[in-house]
Amino acid sequence: MPRDPTVNPKLTRLRRACDMCSQRKVKCDEAGPPCRPCSELNVECTFKRELKRRGPPNKHAEAARAARRQRIEPGMGGSPTTAAFTSYGAAVTPSPSPHNAAQALVSIAEGPGRLDAEAIAPLPILELLIDDFFTYIHPLAPFPHEPTFRHSFANREDRTNPEFLGLLSSMIASLVSSFPRSARQHLKTQHSTHLFPRAIVMIERCRDIALDTRGPRWALKQKTLDDAATSYFLGLAAGYTFQVPRFRYFMSECLSLIRELGFHRPKHPNELPTFGNDNCSPDPLPFHHIKDQIGKRIFWCLLLGVRSFSQLGASHADLVIAPSTPGLPYPALPENVDDLYIMANEIVYPPESSVTLLTGFRFAVDIYTTMNAIVSVELVYGMSTLPWSDQRSLLRDALIAAKDIIDRLPPELQLSASHEQSSGFGTLEDADLQYVPPAYPSSQPPNDVRNVIKNHPQRRRQLQYEIQKANIYISQMATRSFYVELYFNLRDVHVSDPNKEEQVGDSAEDAEAARVFELMTAERELIVQNLLHVLGSISQRNLEPNGGSLINKVRQVASTLLNDAPERKGPVAMKSEEALVKLIDVLLKLEGTGPSGSNIAGENMTPQDEEEEMRNWAHLRDYQQRFAAHGDFAGNI
């Protein structure tokens, strides 16, 4: 007998309520989405909440899920960095587990969008760190474009643009690794030292955020100059904390991005590579001067880093930047113009005699490009394949070229010839300026450098010149020391070679060999004198902000001079041995109290640690003043 539909009709299962109605516990109609309550509230009508199974939990399913979590997340939560993340966990909250494949894909794709700048540090601290970056780091690594960056930060692009957030994170990482006391002061002033007990914790935090912003499909996306700059700063932070494999990785990544963005074969003969054209755009766009200048600055800064690293003993094959050739030339040097006068559609050039922040950067490039011929031979054949006379000539020419650069410096970037007028201890009002530890809750003392440049903005540019001056003189001295040491090492190989061809009766060849030997021997003595002069002329306030690089170079030069064979040392070197031993000891202690060294990431930076750091800087300052007082008579120190 057929069933009567009017009697006990079959019930229809209603659709489940939307997320908002379920949370408010109100009736959700089937008119949507959006449903009527969500429409009235003008909110999004979603169905993303996870459905819960009725009844007691299934023990077999729970065991399977626990085993899967163990496989996916081995050892999570045990590292100091993880502990630091959880201590400031409000910025990065874990997302709920998705309940279907589509939602999982959406959550993965949108993951970096949940981060913003406050995942790095509270906003007031972050603003101060950005100011410090452009004061202390930007003179030596002049990117990103400061007006553009500050405009983007003011508009909070860190919330909408993952590339910008990654760049910001990497900039803070490089600042903290190079100048850890800067971050420590700001954290203490804001009662936030618990967030990052050691500099290395903050550096790793910034690195992790920068990598998180890239997302899983970063390798397939169209790269930008912000990506290249991010890789450079991450590599710089790794280098300053002695993480050499990571340094190589990020610098190699930066080089690959620069090649992709413009460092490739020019379209027309006799043209140089540029970065101002968008080759991926379907429509031709106007030439972008900001992109072009920033791309060139990144390339040349990368070249300087690779050359400097090779002087410390790294192989030229570790990170290969092929020599410039007519068919594949290097980009031109960036224009000698400050960021404020570089706009997207034009560059406003200053008078020729003007000294900008790019002036010192271009002189630093000139110093390291004196290595071009040596690097080219080393990469293609190896120096040992050349005759001794050619090796000798290459090193002599490179040394002379490096020495000539100092003679071309403008007055703003020159060290005074006399110790009394040097920038480090020239005037009484400047003599006691230094970076002092944070004094919170008391106010900072009047001799703190930050107070001075805050109250006198014109002093900021002068401080930046002094930082560039320290970098130029120390880099030039390290490069000269590299040439002299390489000459004597190659000469020892030549002299001890039993198969070398004896030049009989070649008086011209013998005379040239004697002249070069005399030049290199005198240069070694001159480097000792210059080292003492430079250290007596550059104060802590100009050395500390980039101490990770400059202190390492000074220590390398001093160690090379000290560890030479006795027969190579002249009277000045012999007389200065005790001073060099004490200097190296102080520099090693400073490296130990830096962002890495013996510091343990999980321990707090105690007042005793800060006192030790200040004591080490005071010891270095004491030796600097003695160098300045005794001049070239280092044996009396």
TrEMBL record:
The segments labelled Disordered in the record are: 53-78
Zn(2)-C6 fungal-type domain mapped to chain residues: 17-47
State the UniProt keywords alphabetically: DNA-binding, Nucleus, Transcription, Transcription regulation, Zinc
Q: Name one GO molecular function term.
A: DNA-binding transcription factor activity, RNA polymerase II-specific
Membrane-crossing residue ranges in chain numbering: none
The record's section on Gene3D superfamilies has: Zn(2)-C6 fungal-type DNA-binding domain
Tell me if Nucleus is a UniProt keyword of this record. yes
Q: Which CDD domains match?
A: fungal_TF_MHR, GAL4
**Protein name, per record:** Zn(2)-C6 fungal-type domain-containing protein
Q: From what organism does this protein derive?
A: Colletotrichum phormii
